[in-house]
Amino acid sequence: MIGEWLDIGWVDEIPVRGSRTVQVTGGDDIAVFRTGDGKVFALADRCPHKGGRLSQGIVHGGAVACPLHNWRIALDTGEALGEDKGCTPVIPVKVSGGRVLLCRTSTMKAAA
Amino acid sequence: MEHQTPFPDTPFSKRHEHLVVIGNGMAGCRAVEELIARDPTRYRVTIFGAEPHVNYNRIMLSPVLAGEKTFEQIVINDHAWYATNTIELVTSDPVQAIDRAAKTVTARSGLTVSYDRLLIATGSDPFIIPVPGKDLPGVISFRDMADVDHMLDAAGKGGAAVVIGGGLLGLEAAHGLTLRGMRVTVIHLMPTLMERQLDEAAGWLLKSALESRGQVILTEANTAEIVGDTHVEGVLLKDGTLIPASLVVMAVGIRPSVALARDAGLEIGRGIKVDDHMVTSDPSILAVGECVEHDGNVYGLVAPLWDMCRALADGLTDSHSGYRGSVTSTKLKVAGLDVFSAGDFSGGAGAEDIVLRDASRGIYKRVVVKDDRIVGAVLYGDTTDGGWYFDLLKRAEDIAPIRDMLIFGQSFASGGGTADPKAAVAALSDDAEICGCNGVTKGKVVACIGAGNATLDAVRATCKASASCGSCTGLVETLLVVTLGDEYSGERSVKTMCKCTSFGHDDVRREIVAQGMRSIPEVMQKMSWSTPDGCSSCRPALNYYLLCALPGDYKDDQQSRYVNERVHANIQKDGTYSVVPRMWGGLTNPRELRAIADVVEKYDAPMVKVTGGQRLDIFGIKKEDLPAVWADLNAAGMVSGHAYGKSLRTVKTCVGSDWCRFGTQDSTGLGVKVERMTWGSWMPHKFKIAVSGCPRNCAEATIKDFGVVCVDSGYELSVGGNGGIKVRATDFLCKVATEEEAMHYCAAFIQLYREEARYLERTAPWIERIGVAYIRERIADDPEGRDALAARFLFSQQFTQDDPWAARAAGEHREQHTPMARFTPIDQTREMA
User: Fold this and answer.
1) Interchain proximity B535–A75, CB inside 8 Å
2) Same domain for B454 and B506?
3) A93, B101, B484, B805: least surrounded by Cβ within 10 Å?
């Protein structure tokens, strides 16, 4: 049986206030973020505005600024903050024993 | 051992159920205490302990190490307590097996005891990182009294110690060893000390305080090996640093001690799984403390343990109450410094931060609010109100009515009807100090406002209130409102850097230099930032200001740079990158052109374009391919063109006197020399230079940031041009006679721009703002000042003229170019189902 969680690696492989990507064949990347206080979040790597790679943005507080037009996206809900409207799919993620685990179903759905 | 033989069958033992407790630590004994308080006669109790001691307070080992307490002072239950309550204590004899069928436990000595109920309270084991040398004598953990004795022995001989782990235990060990006279280095893998309890700002304050006491704290340091032949001699880091030490304390963390329970076949997750009554998967066996997992949670703090013990004792006495999990807070004194944290302080959507920083007293307070409820708090330096915030958090109290005063603490926020901040400020006496940094009283501020200073900036400039750390900005603004009423416009003449601060760029920059600040968290603390780690506007600006102020000394913060500067290429709208190798002065040769052509074919680049800066731009390169592309270009002698940076871009030239019938000087040669001097420098914004060989100006030097137009008698220098949205021709600076002078003036001008323009301000708007007369005064009319500027520029250049592509091609920051993982769905439809 296939488990519900995908093990993608150690949490300290993601830079603090930074991001790494996970590639899924046939679909968009997943961006996995780590905030200044060590929390881990995952979003589809696609800004709701013009599809910018959120994984390449500046992570501050609980948000990331898209590198293309500086939209701020909340990491926990995927919602655009401030005046902007839009939402990026959130991938459930958890850290267990230092390993980062992504929800399999959501990862595959985001890739489709 | 206090017992060598199995217990005699006494009438007492036959009449009562036998409760055997594995673990004589804080959880095991507390559970027994709770049980006795409910029903002292129901169970006959036997406790097994691995250590030779009675029950002591493990949390107080740090004061014993530091010499503030003796072992006797941290004993919780002495021998008399065991005797009075007819508890059999077996010490120095750890239980090694549980036989669930026979309902017996067997200890190391062979002693076998039968039980009716068994309580496992084995606590945690220290986590030992699996590096070579971890088993050498002199490498210890910090978990029990024996470890403390080891440390005291080592400290008695003096010398150096290394503590691996910058969490609470590690810092306590480091503090104790420092007090005992050892030279201590703390190695921490993460960028922030105690990152699980503290945010970056508080972690930085803690680090500075510990460093000022003589400890060496290395963050982001990764241990490769513990070296030594027969005894530890030092610690080798992955970056090659060797730190000599005669003692190594491993304090990287703890994990639930579950081996015994696992061998007995109990259900194990991260800890021993228990229900709300602390019963394991075997109804006769209970477990409590750090070794258990309840509802998916494992706890390493004392407070949850007390709650668990209550629920456990209730269950054992048939008055089941049930444990519902604990919301934890941490209020600690780390090496004598007060820190507190509770709840969730990660921010996120809908979460707002209320931050108070008092730089002069070293205080940082942050309360995280969501939907008018406190969800988290971090306090450093003053933790008086920690309990109050934690209480509001647990009760999910609506804090809207006291929100404005919340951060000032309980006494302020609930102080008799002063919930209106204006009223509270108006009620202050004239002697009350408003600005602690500059010692300005309310009376002085009000007088200053009365004298016609009707804006914050005017008050700052006149009486200096709120002009240093800025933490009293809110108070001064309230005083403006109270004093001026409707006349106060509320507007500031100086635009603030961003919403995170009440200061403008120039103020921040001046203070960075004046106070010798060295890191982004330090600036945020000393200048009272209102957010925990800034935003995408201020972080790159601060990173640049520090880089400029501390050439060669400042450690560039990659996470505070825009993506292009982080990956040394230009992101395009489809997520691919464009790559522009440097072509000095726009010159190239067959070897470079061949290498570029090869790269285009090898990596399937869909487009190559000649840029306006006389170079070739290769489009459509995938992020993963960038290091290989750079390696290929490096092999042909090319380096990064910095086409992505707030830095020197290009030096555009025309062919000059070598070829052109109108050329007056060697404009190409000069262009190449200027580019060799200036490449690699970081600036407030992008910077373009051009050198034209005659006034026909084919290199378009008069719309560049720095332009040179050659004439028969020398070189005309001009500055501040721009060909962007708003075309601006350069202002004439001066004329010089030689190439050397032209280069010298160029270096001086760039340094003036680097030091005085605001981040993201091109030279054109900068000069419009300050006037070209000022530039002439500093560059053309002040030979000494010009020399000093040029010298500072050349000094800083020696640290930046390393090709970033070469470093990346060799493997630096490889994580930025490789995905963390790749997945290929085996069967897409099944995966989707």
Assistant:
1) no
2) yes
3) B101
Given a cut of 70, whether residue B2 has pLDDT beyond it is no
Q: What is the pLDDT of residues B12-50, one digit of tens each?
A: 445 589 999 999 998 999 999 999 989 988 899 999 999
Residues in chain A with CB shorter than 8 Å from the CB of B571 are 53, 56, 67-68
Q: pTM value?
A: 0.66
pLDDT band at B236, cuts 50/70/90?
very high
Side chain identity at residue B273, one-letter code: K
Q: Which residues contact B270 (CB under 8 A, 6 or more apart)?
A: A96, A97, B256, B293, B298
Cβ pair A33, A76 in contact under 8 A: no
CATH of the domain at B355: 3.30.390.30
**Least CA distance to B561: which residue of chain A?**
A58
Interface contact flag, B820 A68, Cβ < 8 Å = no
Q: Among B266, B288, B316, give the residue marking a domain's end.
A: B316
User: Which helix (H) or strand (E) covers residue B210, if one does?
Assistant: helix B200-212
Picking from B551, B580, B604, the residue at the C-terminal end of a domain is B551
B184 & B114 share domain: no
Could you tell me if B199 lies within 8 Å of chain A, comparing CB atoms?
A: yes
ipTM > 0.90 for the complex: no
Residues in B closer than 8 angstroms to A56, CB to CB, are 563, 566-567, 571
Average pLDDT over residues B230-256: 91
The pLDDT tens digits of the residues spanning B712-769 come to 999 999 999 998 778 999 999 999 999 999 999 999 999 999 999 999 999 999 999 9
Residue B556 forms part of a structural domain: no
Could you read off the pLDDT of B282-300 as tens digits, one per residue? 999 999 999 999 988 888 7
Q: Map out the domains of chain A as residue ranges.
A: 5-111
Please list the helix, strand and coil fractions of chain B in percent, rounded to the nearest 5, in that order.
Answer: 35, 20, 40
Q: Measured on CA atoms in the order A102, A104, A105, A108, is the torsion positive or negative?
A: positive
Is pLDDT above 70 for B180? yes
* CA distance linking residue B763 with residue B723, whole number of Å: 12
CA B538 to chain centre: 16
How close are the terminal C-alpha atoms of chain B, in Å?
A: 61
DSSP B70-119: -TGGGBSS-HHHHHHTTEEEE-S--EEEEETTTTEEEETTS-EEE-SEEE
- First and final C-alpha spacing in chain A: 21
Q: Write the CATH number of the domain with boundaries A5-111.
A: 2.102.10.10
Mean pLDDT across the stretch B561-570? Answer: 90
Total number of domains in chain B: 6
Q: How confident is the model at residue B289, as a pLDDT?
A: 92
Residues B413 and B538 reside in one and the same domain:
no
Determine the structural domain holding residue B149 and report its residue range: 139-252
Answer yes or no: is B822 within a domain: no
